[in-house]
Design brief:
The complex is a heterotrimer of chains A (199), B (537) and C (273).
Chain A: H1 14-43, H2 53-57, H3 67-91, H4 95-122, H5 130-162, H6 172-197
Helix pairs in contact in A: 1-5, 1-6, 3-4, 3-6, 4-5, 5-6
Chain B: H1 16-22, H2 26-55, H3 65-99, H4 108-116, H5 118-127, H6 146-149, H7 152-181, H8 194-225, H9 239-273, H10 280-293, H11 310-319, H12 321-335, H13 344-367, H14 369-375, H15 379-409, H16 415-441, H17 458-487, H18 526-532
Helix pairs in contact in B: 2-3, 2-4, 2-17, 3-7, 3-9, 3-15, 4-7, 5-7, 7-8, 8-9, 8-10, 9-13, 9-15, 10-12, 12-13, 13-15, 13-16, 15-16, 16-17
Chain C: H1 2-33, H2 40-73, H3 90-118, E1 126-133, E2 136-142, E3 157-161, E4 169-173, E5 177-184, E6 189-193, E7 198-202, E8 208-213, E9 218-224, E10 236-242, H4 244-261
Parallel strand pairs in C: 1-5, 4-10
Antiparallel strand pairs in C: 1-2, 2-3, 5-8, 6-7, 6-9, 9-10
Helix pairs in contact in C: 1-2, 2-3
The chains are: A mainly alpha (199), B mainly alpha (537), C alpha+beta (273).
C-alpha cells in the first residue's frame, strides 16, 4: 500500500527493508539457540557428556557421522550459488535462466532435507539423551524447518516465475527468497562447524 | 500502489463489528490495542488486589499457597505481556503515522495480524486457570527447574508468550519501516517527534531481543515435553542457562516497557510548559544509549546465583543510570523557565517524573552488588519495579490517554475528574508501594504467600494493601470521565492543547486517510512553527 | 476560581507527599536497617548501603526541590510565550557529566566493598553443608571439620533436617569464620539470612559457597528467597549464633543422640531442638 502524502525514500522498497528486519530477528533467534549450545558446552566437564549405564545398555552413542553432512553442506552451498545465479539472470531480464536457477536450488534444497532426515535415522541418540542430544536435535531441527520454509518460498517464487511475473525491474520476491536462502545456508555452515567439526 | 482514501460506498453499510474485525487502518487497530490492553490492565489489577488481600494480614488463608503462586504469576504476566508491552503498540499504532505525517503504517495488513495475535494468546494464557494443575505458577520469570514441575497451564503460558513475542517482533519491524521510510517531506530523523524516537528504539529492542526469548521458551518447552536436557544438570544441562537467556530478553524488555512512556512524557511536558523539549538530541542519544546498554546488564538479575561476572555487570548497570539521569535533566530543563499549566495530562507527566526519579534511585541499590546481595528477591525490588513500571509506565499511559483522548475520540475527558483520578492514584500508588522498601529492608522476600506474625511485617503490609485499593478506587473517576465523554458529541478542535506535533494538524478524530494537507516541517515542532511563525526562534 | 485553585491544591498535595516520602525514606530505612548486620561482612555492606542511600537522598532532594520550585515558580501567568530555549552547550555537558561522576563514584565504592567481602574465605573455617529441598532445609556438620577451635572428636556427619511445619535451627559459633556450602537437588532455592544482609542461591548441579564471621549471639530469622513452589513461603529457618563452648556442647549432644538413633554416619537425622 502506498505512502499517501509521504515521500517513499529512494533505494530499496519498504517490503525489502521489512524483510531484512525480519531476517535480523531470525538471526537473533538462532543466536539464542547457539548461545545455549555454547554455554552448555563450555560448562560441561566433558563433551560429549557422560552417559548413564542405562543409556549405554540401550545402545545410546553420542557420535556423529561426518561424511553425509559434509556432502549436504556442499549441496546447500551449491544451491546458494544457483539461487544467486537466478537473481543475476532476472536482473538481466533472463526469465529462463532465472527459472533454471530456481529449479536447481529447489531440487538441491529438497535433497538436503532428505539427507538430513536419513541422517537422523542413522544416529544412536535421541533428544532426551543428555544436553548433547537436546542441542543437536533442537538446532538441526529448527534449521531444517527453516530450510523447508525456504524451499516453500522458492517454490512459490518458481510458480510465479513460470507465470512470467518477474522482470529485470520487478523481481523483489526473487531477491528476498535468495536472501532467505543464503541466511539458511550460513546458519547451516555455522551449525556444521560447531556440531560436527569442532571436537 | 493505490491511494488508501477509498470512500465508503454510500448505499451499503457493513456492520460496525465486521468493520472493526477486518480493519487494517492504523487508527482503528490502535484503538483495538488500547481496549485490549486496558482490559488486561483491569484483569491484572484485580489479580493484584487478590495478592494484596492475601498479604494484608499475617498467616492469612484467603487464598491457598498454590492459588497464590498462580495469581501473582498471572498478575505479572498480564501486566507485562498483555498490558504494558502492547499498550505502547497501541499508542504507537495510533500516533506514529500521524506524528510523521503518513497515511498509515508501512504494512497495514501485517499490522492487523500483529494485533489479532494478541487475543488468542491472552485467552490461552488465562485458560490455564481452568485446566488441571491451574495456570502458570512459576513467576513470570519461569525459572527452571521449577518451571518443569508445573502442569499444562505452564505449556499454555509458554505458547502464549511465544505468540505475543511474534506479534511484537513483526510489529517492531512494521514500526521501523514506517519511521525509516514514510516520514513527511521535511521531516528528517532529528525532526521526528520524541515519542516516535522512543518507539523506534523500543522497536529495535523488540526486534533483536524478543527472538531470544522465543528461543528460550522453545528450549523450556522441549525440556518440559520432549525430554530435553537444556536446564537439567543430570543430563549435562545448565540451570543458570535459563536465567541468562531469559534475562537477555527480559532486561531490554524493561526498557521496552518504559521508553515509550518517557516519549509520551516528553511530548506532554513541552506542550504545557510552552517550550521545546530541553536537549532534544541529548534525549535521543540517551534513548539510544539506554537501548544499547540494555543488552549488557541482564545478569544484574543474577548476582546471587554465584555465577556472574560481578564487576562487569555492576558497572554496566550503574552506567545505565547515566542516560537515565540525562533524561531527568531533559525534563527539568523543559519545565525550567516555562509557562506551565496543569491540565490532567501534565499532572500525570509530572507524576511520572517524580516517581521515575525514585524508581531510578532505588534501582542503584541493585547495581551496588554487595547491597544487592541483601535486597535481591525482597520486597525492595518489588518496590523498585513498581516505581518504574507503575509510577513510570502506568502514569505515562494515563497521561497519554488524557492527552490524546481529544484526538482519538474527539472529546475531552472531564478535567476535575481527571485531577481527582490523578490525586487518588498518586497517593494510592505511594501508599501501596513505598512501604515495600521498608519491608524489603526488613527481609520480606518477594513471592511468599504467607508470613509469620512474628516477622512484624503486618502493619506495613496492611498499609500497602490499603494503597492498592485506593489505586483501584482512583479508576472510578476515570471510568466516569470516559462514560461522560462518550455521552457528549465530538466537539474537539484540531489542536485543543496548542500542541507541537503533526497529529494535531488534522481533525479530531482524523479522517481515514489522516491528512488533507500537511504544514511544512522545518523543526521538531511544525505546529508551533505554524502558530508562531519564526518570531519565537 | 475553583478551577484555578484545584491544580494548586493538587500541586501542594504532591509537594507535601514528596516531602513526606523523603522523611519516610530516611526514618524508615534507618529503623529497618538498624538491627541488621551481625557479621563482619554485613557491617561492610551496611556501610555501603548507607553511602548509596545518602547519595540517593541528595540526588532526590536536589531534583525534587528543582521540580517543585519549577512548577511553582514557572506556572503560567499569561499568554506571553516564555523564551524558547532548546538547551545545548555547557548544560548538556553537565547533564552527562554529573550522572557519570555519581555512578563511577558509587561503582568504585561498591567494588571496594565487594573485594573486602570476598577476601574473608578461610580454609580452616567450620564448614556447614546446606541443602535446600522442597520445602525445608538440611544443615549438615562434618565432625572432622568443625573449625580450628576444636579438636576432631569423632567420625561422621550430624544433620539437622526441617519440615515446612517445623523450621530447622542452624547452629553456628560466634566470632569465627564459618563457611557455607550450598546445594540443591530439586529446584533453585536461596539461602537468605536477613541479618547477614546476604543471600546466595542453591542451584542444582553446582555448589555455591560463602564465608561469614558472626559478631553477635542470638536467634536470627531466615528463609528461602527464591520462589521454589507451593510452600516456598514456609521454607523458613532460624540461625542460632552461640558461643563456641555452647556450640561444642550442642554438637556433642547431637552426635550422641544421632549415634544412638543410628543416623549419624548416613548424614541424616532429625531436627536438633
Amino acid at each position: 500500500m502506498a505512502a499517501h502524502g509521504a515521500a517513499e525514500r529512494q533505494g530499496m522498497t519498504n517490503s525489502m527493508l521489512g524483510f531484512i528486519l525480519f531476517l535480523a530477528s531470525e538471526v537473533m533467534f538462532f543466536g539464542g539457540l547457539f548461545a545455549a549450545y555454547f554455554i552448555a558446552r563450555a560448562d560441561a566437564p566433558a563433551w560429549p557428556p557422560p552417559l548413564t549405564p542405562e543409556q549405554i545398555a540401550e545402545g545410546v552413542k553420542l557420535e556423529l557421522e561426518v561424511v553425509l553432512p559434509a556432502i549436504s553442506t556442499g549441496i546447500l552451498v551449491v544451491s546458494s550459488i544457483t539461487m544467486q545465479y537466478a537473481v543475476w539472470q532476472i536482473q538481466k531480464g533472463n526469465q529462463g535462466g532465472m527459472l533454471w536457477g530456481l529449479f536447481i536450488s529447489l531440487a538441491l534444497g529438497i535433497v538436503f532435507l532428505a539427507a538430513q532426515l536419513y541422517d537422523y535415522t542413522q544416529l544412536h541418540f535421541l533428544a532426551d539423551d543428555t544436553i548433547y542430544g537436546t542441542t543437536f536435535y533442537t538446532l538441526t531441527g529448527f534449521h531444517g524447518a527453516h530450510v523447508a520454509g525456504g524451499a516453500l518460498f522458492i517454490a512459490v517464487v518458481t510458480v510465479r516465475g513460470l507465470g512470467g511475473q518477474f522482470t529485470a525491474e520487478n523481481h523483489e520476491a526473487v531477491e528476498a527468497a535468495s536472501m532467505y536462502w543464503h541466511f539458511v545456508d550460513v546458519v547451516w555452515i555455522a551449525l556444521f562447524t560447531v556440531l560436527y567439526i569442532i571436537k | 500502489m493505490a491511494t488508501v482514501a477509498v470512500p465508503q460506498l454510500s448505499g451499503y453499510h457493513r456492520p460496525a463489528v465486521l468493520d472493526w474485525i477486518t480493519t487494517v487502518d492504523h487508527k482503528k487497530l490502535g484503538i483495538l490495542y488500547l481496549y485490549f490492553t486496558l482490559f488486561f490492565f483491569a484483569v491484572g489489577g484485580i489479580l493484584a488486589l487478590l495478592v494484596r488481600t492475601q498479604l494484608a494480614v499475617a498467616d492469612n488463608s484467603f487464598v491457598g499457597n498454590d492459588a497464590y503462586n498462580q495469581i501473582f504469576t498471572m498478575h505479572a504476566s498480564a501486566m507485562l505481556f498483555l498490558f504494558i508491552i502492547p499498550v505502547w503498540a497501541g499508542f504507537g499504532n495510533y500516533l506514529v503515522p500521524l506524528q510523521i505525517g503518513a497515511a498509515d503504517m508501512a504494512f497495514p495488513r501485517i499490522n492487523a495480524l500483529s494485533f489479532w495475535m494478541l487475543p488468542p494468546a491472552g485467552i490461552l494464557m488465562f485458560a490455564g486457570f481452568i485446566v488441571d494443575g491451574g495456570a502458570a505458577d512459576g513467576g513470570w520469570t519461569a525459572y527452571s527447574p521449577l518451571a518443569q514441575q508445573t502442569g499444562v497451564g505452564m505449556d499454555m503460558w509458554i505458547i502464549a508468550v511465544i505468540v505475543l513475542g511474534m506479534s511484537s517482533t513483526i510489529g517492531a519491524a512494521n514500526f521501523l519501516v514506517t519511521m525509516f521510510r514514510m516520514r513527511a517531506p521535511g521531516m528528517t530523523m532529528f525532526r521526528m517527534p520524541i515519542f516516535c524516537w522512543t518507539m523506534l528504539v523500543t522497536a529495535l529492542l523488540q526486534l533483536l531481543a524478543t527472538p531470544v526469548l522465543a528461543a528460550a521458551l522453545v528450549m523450556l518447552f522441549i525440556d518440559r515435553n520432549y525430554g530435553g536436557q537444556f536446564f537439567d544438570p543430570n543430563g549435562g544441562g545448565n540451570v543458570v542457562l535459563w536465567q541468562n537467556v531469559f534475562w537477555f530478553y527480559s532486561h531490554p524488555a524493561v526498557y521496552i516497557m518504559i521508553l515509550p512512556g518517557m516519549g509520551i512524557v516528553s511530548e506532554i511536558l513541552p506542550v504545557f510548559s510552552r517550550k521545546p523539549l530541553f536537549g532534544y538530541k541529548a534525549f535521543v542519544f540517551a534513548t539510544i544509549g539506554i537501548g544499547g546498554l540494555g543488552f549488557s546488564v541482564w545478569a544484574h538479575h543474577m548476582f546471587t546465583t554465584g555465577s556472574v561476572l560481578l564487576p562487569f555487570f555492576g558497572f554496566m548497570t550503574f552506567m545505565i543510570g547515566v542516560p537515565t539521569g540525562v533524561k531527568i535533566f531533559n525534563w527539568l530543563g523543559t519545565l525550567w523557565g516555562g509557562s506551565i499549566s496543569f491540565p490532567t495530562p501534565m499532572l500525570f507527566a509530572i507524576g511520572f517524573v517524580s516517581m521515575f526519579l525514585i524508581g531510578g534511585i532505588n534501582g542503584t541499590y541493585s547495581a551496588a552488588v554487595p547491597v544487592d546481595f541483601a535486597l535481591h528477591d525482597t520486597y525492595f525490588v518489588v518496590a523498585h519495579i513498581h516505581y518504574v513500571l507503575f509510577g513510570g509506565s502506568v502514569f505515562a499511559v494515563f497521561g497519554g490517554l488524557y492527552y490524546w483522548f481529544p484526538k482519538i475520540w474527539g472529546r475531552k475527558l472531564n478535567e476535575r475528574l481527571g485531577k481527582l483520578h490523578f490525586a487518588l492514584m498518586f497517593v494510592g500508588f505511594n501508599v501501596a508501594f513505598f512501604p515495600m522498601h521498608m519491608l524489603g529492608l526488613d527481609g520480606m522476600p518477594r513471592r511468599i504467600a504467607v508470613y509469620a506474625d512474628s516477622a512484624g511485617w503486618e502493619a506495613l503490609n496492611m498499609l500497602s494493601t490499603g494503597g492498592a485499593f485506593l489505586i483501584a478506587v482512583s479508576m472510578i473517576p476515570f471510568l466516569i470521565a470516559v462514560v461522560m465523554a462518550f455521552m457528549r458529541p465530538k466537539d474537539q478542535p484540531d489542536d485543543p492543547w496548542e500542541a507541537n506535533t503533526l497529529e494535531w494538524a488534522t481533525t479530531s478524530p482524523p479522517p481515514h486517510y489522516n491528512f488533507d494537507s500537511l504544514p511544512p516541517v522545518r523543526s521538531e515542532r511544525p505546529l508551533f512553527d505554524a502558530r508562531h511563525g519564526d518570531e519565537a526562534h | 476560581m475553583l478551577r484555578m485553585s484545584l491544580p494548586r491544591r493538587v500541586r501542594l498535595l504532591a509537594a507535601a507527599t514528596a516531602a513526606g516520602l523523603l522523611a519516610l525514606l530516611a526514618t524508615g530505612t534507618a529503623s529497618a536497617i538498624q538491627p541488621g548486620g551481625i557479621t563482619d561482612e554485613a557491617r561492610l555492606m551496611n556501610e555501603l548501603f548507607w553511602i548509596v542511600t545518602i547519595a540517593g537522598l541528595i540526588v532526590f532532594a536536589l531534583v525534587a526541590a528543582a521540580l517543585v520550585y519549577a512548577i511553582i515558580r514557572y506556572r503560567r501567568k499569561g499568554d506571553e510565550l516564555p523564551p524558547q530555549f532548546h538547551g545545548g552547550g555547557k548544560i548538556e555537558v553537565a547533564m552527562v557529566g554529573v550522572p557519570i561522576l555519581i555512578v563511577i563514584g558509587l561503582f568504585t565504592i561498591s567494588m571496594i566493598t565487594l573485594v573486602q567481602i570476598d577476601d574473608k574465605a578461610d580454609d580452616d573455617a567450620l564448614t556447614i553443608d546446606v541443602t535446600g529441598f522442597q520445602f525445608s532445609w538440611q544443615f549438615a556438620y562434618n565432625l572432622n571439620d568443625l573449625g580450628t577451635n576444636t579438636d576432631p572428636n569423632a567420625e561422621g556427619t550430624i544433620a539437622v533436617i526441617g519440615t515446612p511445619a517445623n523450621d530447622p535451627i542452624l547452629y553456628m559459633p560466634v566470632d569465627e569464620p564459618v563457611e557455607f556450602l550450598l546445594k540443591s537437588n530439586d529446584v533453585i532455592h536461596s539461602f537468605y539470612v536477613v541479618d547477614f544482609l546476604y543471600k546466595l542461591d542453591l542451584i542444582p548441579g553446582r555448589v555455591n559457597s560463602f564465608t561469614v564471621t558472626a559478631r553477635e549471639t542470638g536467634d536470627f530469622r531466615a528463609q528461602c528467597a527464591e520462589l521454589c513452589g507451593t510452600n516456598h513461603a514456609l521454607m523458613r529457618f532460624t540461625v542460632r549464633v552461640v558461643e563456641r563452648d555452647e556450640f561444642d556442647a550442642w554438637v556433642a549432644d547431637e552426635a550422641a543422640r544421632q549415634l544412638g538413633e543410628g543416623t549419624l554416619v548416613s548424614s541424616s537425622g532429625t531436627q536438633g531442638d
